[in-house]
Amino acid sequence: MLQIELRYENATLASYETENEQVSIGRNPKNDIQIDNMAVSSFHAVVKKVMNAYFIEDLNSTNGTFVNEKKIDKYELLDGDRIIIGKHQLHFRFGAKASQPAQFDETMVLDTKRQKELLEKNR
Predict the structure, then answer these.
(1) Which CATH architecture has domain 2-94?
(2) Distance between CA 84 and CA 99 in Å, rounded?
(3) What pTM was estimated for this model as a whole?
(4) I want to staple 7 with a disulfide (CB 3.0 to 4.6 A). Which of 46, 50, 89, 108 is the partner?
(5) pLDDT tens digit string along 73-105?
(6) How would you classify the pairing of strands 11-18 and 22-26?
(7) How far apart are the first and last CA of the chain?
(8) What angle do CA 104, 2, 85 make, to 5 degrees?
(9) Beta carbons of 1 and 7 less than 8 angstroms apart
(10) Where's the FHA domain (predicted)?
(11) In which element (H, E) is residue 121 found?
């Protein structure tokens, strides 16, 4: 059972529990996990189960996807990994519940000190 906890700063916004083989993440309401933030692309990333492993793949998002502060294109997730999308964190683990509505418009490009630090660190 896959559990993903969506956080912003120190607050938990939602928890998701699924046995699906694929979980989409983005601002568009068609995603399994919707993040209502202009820094998040409409279809930002996807988590896929392959055999007994989970992988996250960035879908050519504007601001990138980070796992444990490292920018990734595709990455095998481990229990406890922290995914950063925009200003939100998703904590990956095994079992939770909920979802929340979202709206979408054009992706806002982040220009924050933290985003620049992460990008510089990964060059």
Answers:
(1) Sandwich (2.60)
(2) 18
(3) 0.74
(4) 89
(5) 999 999 999 999 999 999 999 743 333 344 455
(6) unpaired
(7) 35
(8) 35
(9) no
(10) 23-72
(11) helix 113-121
